[in-house]
Specification:
Number of helices: 3
Order of helices and strands: HHH
Low-confidence stretches: none
Mean pLDDT: 95
Number of domains: 1
Radius of gyration: 13 Å
Largest sheet: none
Shape: globular
Helix content: over 70%
Distance between the termini: 41 Å
Strand content: under 5%
Number of strands: 0
Structural class: mainly alpha
């Protein structure tokens, strides 16, 4: 189960990166940040479960930065 959650999380991060690179989604858009928040949070959680601290730190930071980006998207009045 941990492998599935971790793979799904990492897959979401990679999918967001792929979609951004090929201009399918905006790099400053809500979908991009939401995919990164969910993906990084899942990867962080599974890293925590296997007690791999370097990735817990990496993915927790990625999650927090993505949350800030998502909040900024919602607070921008366009």
């Amino acid at each position: 189960m941990m492998d599935i959650l971790g793979a799904f999380g990492v897959g979401l991060i990679l999918l967001a990166y792929f979609c951004n690179t090929f201009s399918y989604i905006r790099k400053d858009g809500k979908l991009y940040f939401a995919m990164n928040v969910l993906g990084a949070a899942l990867a962080c959680y599974t890293s925590w479960l296997i007690h791999y601290l370097p990735f817990v730190i990496l993915e927790a930071t990625w999650t927090l930065v993505s949350i800030v980006g998502l909040i900024k998207c919602f607070s921008n009045k366009e």
